[in-house]
Amino acid sequence: MTLWVYDVFVLAALTLVYVPAALLRRLARGVPVHVRERLGFISGPRTGRCVWIHAVSVGEAIAAAPLVESVRRRFPELAIVVTTVTETGAGVVRDRYAGLAAHRFFPVDLPGAARRAVDALEPALVILMETELWPNALRALAKRRVPVMVANGRISDRSYRRYRLAGRFMRRVLEDVAVFAMQSPEDARRIIALGAEPGRVFVTGNLKNEAPPDPPGAADGWRRLLGLRAGQRSWIAGSTHRGEEAVVLAAHRAAVAECPDLALVLAPRHPERTEEVLGVVRGAGLAAVRRSELPCEREPGAVVVLDSVGELAALYSVGDVVFVGGSLVPLGGHNLLEAAIRRKPVLSGPHTHNFRDATALLEAAGAAVVVHGPEDLGRELRRLLADPALRTKMGDAGYEAVAARQGAVRETLDLATRLLGLEKGAQR
Fold first, then answer.
1. 152-199 tens-digit pLDDT
2. Domain with 234 in it: what CATH number?
C-alpha cells in the first residue's frame, strides 16, 4: 500500500461513514461537528511552541492525566495542547485540564488538513497516546522535523492482525516515530515485528498505574450524592456493554436477597445507551434513576445509571465491590487498574485480551476474580459482600501490585526530555 491508496481509503471512509454519522449525531443529539478544526483550520488563541498530546477519546484522555501534569512541571516554558477525536474526549480534557492544557480537535488524516494543523500548533514535541498512528499527520510532522513519540503504547490482538496486513506500508509509517514507549514486553515485541527499529523501542510500563489520587473527601461527597447511608453496602458495574447489563441485574437481584439495602451503580461504557439501559433495568422489575438527576427523591433500591462522562473512576471509590465490563462479552475488557488503585476487589469476565497484563497482574496478586456468567457473578458478589476482611485483603493486594509497577511517567518523561533536547539541537 502506498500513501495515495491510503488517502483514497480515508476519503471514502469520510464520505461514506464519518460525515453521515457526524451529521446524524448533529441532527439527533446536537453534537457539534467542528468542521473547520477537523480540516486543520485550528481555532482559538495561539499557544506558541507546545507539547502536543493526542488522546483519541475518553479512556486515553483520562490515562494522560499523570503525563499532562508532569509535562507541565518538567517543561514549564512550553504550552500543552491535547487533541481528541471525540466530543466526549474533548469534554474530559476541558474539565480535567483547565488551566493546564488547551483542547483542539485532531484533524482528519488527509495531507492538507494534517499540514495546516501542524503549522498552526507549532509543536516542539508530539506524544501519541496508546499507538495512535496517522500516516499523513506523521509525514507532516516529519517534514517539520518535529519529534514524535508513542506513549503508553499497546497493540491489541485485533490491531496487530490489522497492522500486519499493511506490511511494508506499516514499516514506512513507523519510520516517522522517534520513540516507542510501550506498556509491556509483548507490546514491544509486536511493534518491532511490525517494523519499528529495536533501538527506538522501550518498555516503560502502564501510565494507568499512576493515576492521580482522588481529592480529599471525594468518596464521602459521592456517597452523599448517591444517597448512601452510613454503613450501606454498594457495588459498581463499570463500562458495561449490551448483553452485560442483564447479567449484572440478575446478580444484583440474587445479592439483594441476602443484603436487602445493597445499592448498585450501573455505568454503561457508552452514555448514549442510557435510555436503553434504563429500559433494561425497568424490564428487570427494578426502579432506576439517572446520575444526572441526583440528588432527588427516588424509589427505594433504585439502580443509579451513570449517564455522564469521566466520573466512573472516581465513583469506584464508593463501591464495596467493582465489576469491570466489556469482559462478559467478547470485546476485550476495560481498565481494571482504576478500581485496584482505589483498593477495591475486582470482578471481571473472561474476555480481557485488551487488558491482558493488567488482568494477569491482579489475578496473580489475588486482587481480581474472573467470572463466567450471572450465577458465577452473583456467587462471587455475595461472597465478597459477606466478608469485609476478604474485601480489604483483595483491595490492599491490588493496590500494592499496581504501586509496585509504577515508574512509567518518569521513564516516559525522560524519553520526552531526550527528544526535546534533540529537537532544540536541530534548531540550533
1. 999 999 999 999 999 899 999 999 999 999 999 999 999 999 999 999
2. 3.40.50.2000
CB atoms within 10 A of CB 231: 6
Residue 187 identity: D
Instruction: Tell me the per-residue pLDDT of 276-300, one tens digit each, with 9 for 90 and over.
Output: 999 999 999 999 999 999 999 899 9
CA pair distance 73, 80, nearest whole angstrom: 11
**Catalytically annotated residue among 60, 132, 210, 245:** 60
CB 234 within 8 A of CB 322: no
Domain total for the chain? Answer: 2
Residue 21 lies in a domain: no
d(CA 410, CA 66): 10
Distance CA 352, CA 348 (A): 8
Asked if pLDDT for residue 424 goes beyond 90, the answer is: no
**Is residue 390 a contact partner of residue 366, using CB atoms and an 8 Å limit?**
no
pTM for the model: 0.89
Give the chain's radius of gyration (CA, Å): 22
Please report whether residue 23 resides in a domain: no
CATH number where 116 lies: 3.40.50.11720
Q: Do 400 and 253 sit in the same domain of this protein?
A: yes
Q: 201 and 230: one domain? A: no
Answer whether 184's CB lies under 8 Å from 386's CB: no
**DSSP string over 142-155:** HHTT--EEEEEE--
Nearest residue to 363 via CA among 334, 332, 394, 388: 394
Give the burial class of 326: count Cβ atoms within 10 A of its Cβ; 0-12 exposed, 13-18 middle, 19 or more buried: buried
Specify whether 247 is located in the same domain as 153. Answer: no
* Cα 416 to Cα 80: distance, rounded to the nearest angstrom: 13
Is 258 assigned a catalytic role?
no
Structure confidence by residue, pLDDT tens digits, 89-139: 999 999 999 999 999 999 999 999 999 999 999 999 999 999 889 999 999
Grid cell, residue 330, equals 467478547
323-350 pLDDT per residue, tens: 999 999 999 999 999 999 999 999 999 9
